[in-house]
# Entry
Amino acid sequence: MPRLKGLGKLITVDVDKLFDLDRSIEEAAIRHPAEDTGKWHWREIVQTGVVPSRKPLHRFTATGRERLLWADGLRIERPTRA
# Structure
């Protein structure tokens, strides 16, 4: 189970509660207030194409799940606006 550490607290994330595996990212599969559909981070996930935003999470590959959770070492190039 993923764990976050900082400021003297250890937080354990229950991934089964965090995601609705029957939904896609665009269908609000992430159950966290900061990730609500249309919010900044949600838009970043959808617009960058890091993971397929229309595919139900239960159909993600192991690599897709890892990218969604961690995006370790993933570099995203965004075009600059003129």
